[in-house]
Amino acid sequence: MNRTTINGWAREISRLLDDRAGVGGRDLAARLDRAAPVLPPEILARARFLAAAETVSRLPERAEAIDLERVETAYVTVQSWLMAEEPEALRHALRRAVWMRRARQAASILLAALIAGLLWRGIA
C-alpha cells in the first residue's frame, strides 16, 4: 500500500458518496462536509480520517508516518456502510437535513429581524 492506494480508496469513497447519496464536491473532504448530517458519527470520523490520510500522503516527508492498517480499516468500514445503505434513503435523509438547516437559518433571521424591530420601536 502506498500513496496510489490511499488516493484510490479516497476516490472510491468520493464516487460512492456521489453515486449513492448524490453528494457532490471537489474532493472527499468537501463531499463529507455536505454529507455530514446523514452519516453516523463513526462513519464520518473514519471517512474524515481517510480524507486526511489522502492529504498527508501528498507530502513525501510525512507520508511514511501514515498508519496504513488504520487507513485500510477506515476505507473498508466506510465502503461497507455506504454499500449497505439504500441510495434513496440516503438521498432522502440528505434532502431532509438540508431543508432543516435552511429552516433553522430562516427562523434565526426572522427572530433577529423581530428583535431588531422591537428594539428600534423601543428606541424611537
Description:
By secondary structure, the protein is mostly helical. The protein has one domain. Helices cover 82% and strands 0% of the residues. Helix 1 runs parallel beside helix 5 and helix 3 packs across helix 5. The radius of gyration is 20 Å and the shape is elongated.
Largest β sheet strand count, sense and barrel closure? none
Average pLDDT confidence is 87
Radius of gyration: 20 Å
Low-pLDDT segments, ≥5 res: none
Provide key terms for this protein:
124 residues, mainly alpha, 6 helices, elongated, transmembrane helix, membrane
Topology:
Elements: H1 3-21, H2 28-35, H3 41-57, H4 60-63, H5 68-84, H6 87-123
Helix pairs in contact: 1-2, 1-3, 1-5, 3-5
